[in-house]
Amino acid sequence: MADKVTSQDVAARAGVSRSAVSRVFTPGASVSDATAKKVRLAAEQLGYRPNVLARSLLTGRSRMVGLVVGYLDNHFYPGLLEQLCQVLDTEGVNVLMFLAEDAEANLDQVVNDLLDYQVDGLVLASVTLGSTLATRCEAIGVPVVELNRSDGGQGLHVVSDNEMGGVMAVEHLIAQGRRRIGHIAGWEGASTQRAREAGALSALRKAGLGLYAREVGNFDKEQARDATRRMFNDAEARPDAVFVANDFMAFHVIDVLRYELGLTVPKDVAVIGFDDVPTAAFAAYELTTIRQDLDAMVRHTAELLMGRETSSRMITPSLVVRSTCGAT
Amino acid sequence: MADKVTSQDVAARAGVSRSAVSRVFTPGASVSDATAKKVRLAAEQLGYRPNVLARSLLTGRSRMVGLVVGYLDNHFYPGLLEQLCQVLDTEGVNVLMFLAEDAEANLDQVVNDLLDYQVDGLVLASVTLGSTLATRCEAIGVPVVELNRSDGGQGLHVVSDNEMGGVMAVEHLIAQGRRRIGHIAGWEGASTQRAREAGALSALRKAGLGLYAREVGNFDKEQARDATRRMFNDAEARPDAVFVANDFMAFHVIDVLRYELGLTVPKDVAVIGFDDVPTAAFAAYELTTIRQDLDAMVRHTAELLMGRETSSRMITPSLVVRSTCGAT
DNA sequence: CTGAAAGCGCTTACAG
DNA sequence: CTGAAAGCGCTTACAG
Fold this sequence. Notes:
Structural class of chain A: alpha/beta
Oligomer: homodimer
């Protein structure tokens, strides 16, 4: 194992000081062309690359952002991760990943770990920070942005206008002639869930309707299936439409409706989801859904992290019509 | 913004030296209970946490591993990422993410970036490193393991026995009575593709058959769809089965077969995929496939990174029978 | 433009 | 068990 080559080595070979070497690798520092040339040559020959960690110790900036995400099963999150990596890459910052499986449970532990790495910022996808830690992050000047969650009224958050999305979903169902509209909810602790449902309820109210049925799927595969079974077990009085709180659950809802209960979508029951993950466009589903503008969400998140923006934002979602909500 | 609290601050408050503070936070160092207690109390009160970056400078270990992955659309990779994060977390190491969209193109750049962060190891999921960089990584003692790719005969790699998988796939098709077997290939530059196809061919040969049709889908959604259209455009002479190089393409192949060409799966044509991603189990697909043992792959990768294992490994895949390959 | 010096926050032999 | 000292690899005022 070769010795690590340091700025000292490069300096020696180039016949300059370490300061000079450092300047050559610091954009905007003042070095003569001659010096720069000598240094770059020596660095090249030696295979020298600055140690980012050592630099961070001095500058106080690590050029890393911590991302904590609850789970990756819902393809919304890999998409988010992908976009975030790309956008941050253009800023020269990397993503330090953290999976908080049991979500809120050990989140404080996770965030502390991340903070120990001196991350320049934190993005919490679908998880919410306790106020103690939030205060601490603020104290040490680390911006934390909640993405797709907006519980703490305090901190920064970037979310879709989920309530508007709920309204759009139900209005579409009603426009298609549906009247017996059910809702399969996600985790009720999530602000996204509450807002989506609130929107749905207000659209129903406006139409002089109420929620025809309601079950909780907790954003979980099996629970969504069970919720569907319960909601449709009375063949006489079943809903003619269901607004599912996210696409991930909607696929399972459709599978149960079609392959277990023998119902036809959309003829017997219309289904609408939320997110517009890639699978929603698959011919086997052709899921009508409320699209979250991931691009705008991630872009604003990056601006917040970079400190070029300082306020939370609500992103406007849009209706994507596919075949699962055809007219009766 | 509060001043950062350092080990010096804690030492002062606890009335000990910085060395003592350091030892308290170094597992296995010798400190008296009394000292430890005083230090922990002071640290607690001050909200002190060791700076991992500073520590890394000394120890030469950053406790970060770089992961570069080509894309996340294929759900195989988010799954892999998830498992890797979990397993490495138990070792106290974090994952520094990097997306190499245009794959092999700027990979060297990406790897250099990662190396600048002093990562303790590198895992390349489905991408392959140029030999120059590979040598450099070896020189500086950074293990690099190729996961789900095994081109460089040199370095460490962890892959499924893809050839065996190809054999299993075709043997299953034959056992179901299929004889006109087509193959929709992935990217031919990938070792995984070549091995899977080689296995398929050898199983066909053994049965006295040849490949009935072949098209290239390049592991891409649209290309897979086009490949399917080309392969099935002659209604008289179409294959009665198709082995698709991965599940991600297989879903699109099935969609085209069913919804564009009006064929029935498996009655008209049997389909078998590779990977066993979660969507394969969805009722809308019920895709028969060759499962890669992600758990074993990730576990071995971690062992290699930790230096507890030193040799490459081939993991045995398994056949998962679902309804897309029913008998004729 | 350039170098000597101090210092980022921590760890680790070395004495005691 | 404990502290003083040196040092990890780099950057940044400060003089020149």
